[in-house]
Design brief:
The structure holds two protein chains of two kinds. By secondary structure, chain A is mostly helical. Chain A has a two-stranded antiparallel ribbon. The longest helix of chain A has 24 residues, at 31-54. Chain A has five helices and two strands, in the order αααββαα. Chain A has two domains: 1-54; 62-103, no CATH class. The radius of gyration of chain A is 19 Å and the shape is elongated. In chain A, a hairpin with a 2-residue loop joins strand 1 (55-56) and strand 2 (59-60). In chain A, helix 4 (64-77) runs antiparallel to helix 5. Chain B has two domains: 2-156, no CATH class; 158-205, no CATH class. Chain B contains ten helices and no strands. In chain B, helix 1 packs across helix 8 and helix 3 runs antiparallel to helix 4 (43-68). The longest helix of chain B is centred in the middle third of the chain and has 30 residues, at 102-131. The chains are: A mainly alpha, B mainly alpha. At the A-B interface, helix 1, helix 3, strand 1, strand 2 and helix 4 of A face helix 2, helix 3, helix 4, helix 5 and helix 8 of B.
């Protein structure tokens, strides 16, 4: 089911981009839609952060990923670039696991 | 690079990972698609999450229209390429210049093409690196996934209401994890955003 998701997802993402150029302006240009498309990434990304940190499958699980997330937040507060944030989180989790401090 | 590595850690092969960077080419949606698939979510939930995140590109295109028009109408193939290059970065660079100016068009195209090339190269390097690993957990790649998402989220937390929305969405999604199929708890955050939009609308009125 990975390839269908890639193909349909890519096609859909492209059509969304194209629609902004070809659909009559007044259809897309409304206050409610603007507000909602600004809020959707915030809600979905926050949910992804939480689910990917605190769960595995359908089980809540607390492990080294939490320390990784905390390290990422510190890096972001220090204005680290994207790649650094991701690497800091990975190293933090890897070190905690290697030393047996966290699963 | 981080996308390639994370996609690899989520179980995608190098071809699938590269196809996403070439075809989907919008960072947050790509991360979301592999994140949901990697967590055991269905293809439908993964695609829906990715497309809800990609909806903002549609409004970027809308606001770019006056910036990218010139006296001579663009050929149809140029419009098709322009659509694919419509992302956060190219939009942000183009709208710094006067609408319809040569500089605005130049900023859009040079940023869009440069990021497309770099993003795809980085994806390939990251994907090949992840493919060489036995267990992504020992390198902490499973912790890199939420770190990637919070790095994408961070610049969007502009005021109290967006921070509140982020916290509520995170709490609702986490609380639903034991009760729903993987993938659906994340999608439930779209409903939280719908409610938040109504609350903000009422406050603005």
């Amino acid at each position: 089911m990975i390839w269908p998701a890639i193909i349909i997802g890519s096609l859909g993402a492209y059509l969304l981009k194209l629609s902004g150029y070809v659909i009559p302006e007044r259809v897309l240009d409304n206050e409610r839609l603007r507000r909602l498309t600004a809020l959707l990434p915030v809600a979905l990304l926050a949910a992804l952060v939480a689910v990917q940190t605190f769960s595995t499958g359908t089980q809540l699980q607390l492990d080294a990923r939490i320390a990784g997330l905390a390290a990422a937040i510190v890096a972001l507060a220090l204005r680290a670039p994207f790649l650094v944030v991701v690497i800091v989180a990975a190293i933090t989790a890897a070190v905690l696991r290697a030393t047996g401090l966290a699963p | 690079m981080s996308f390639g590595a994370i996609a690899g850690a989520s179980g995608l092969d190098v071809w699938q990972t590269q196809a996403l960077s070439l075809g989907m080419f919008t960072g947050a949606s790509q991360f979301a698609l592999v994140g949901v698939l990697g967590a055991g979510g269905g293809a439908l939930a993964a695609v829906l999450t990715a497309l809800l995140l990609g909806a903002r590109n549609s409004l970027y295109a809308l606001s770019l229209r006056p910036f990218l028009t010139s006296n001579a109408p663009a050929p149809w193939w140029q419009l098709l390429v322009r659509a694919q290059l419509t992302i956060d970065e190219s939009t942000a660079m183009a709208i710094r210049y006067p609408a319809g100016s040569r500089r605005a068009r130049h900023a859009f195209w040079s940023t869009g093409v440069a990021i497309f090339v770099l993003w795809n190269l980085g994806t390939l390097i990251g994907a090949l690196g992840a493919a060489a690993l036995d267990d992504p957990r020992t390198l902490g790649l499973d912790a890199a996934v939420p770190a990637g998402f919070i790095a994408l989220l961070w610049p969007r937390l502009r005021d109290r209401s967006t921070i509140a929305l982020a916290l509520v969405s995170a709490a609702v999604a986490t609380a639903l994890v034991p009760f729903l199929q993987p993938g659906l708890p994340v999608l439930s955050a779209a409903l939280v955003a719908l409610v938040a939009e109504r609350v903000l609308a009422r406050r603005a009125a």
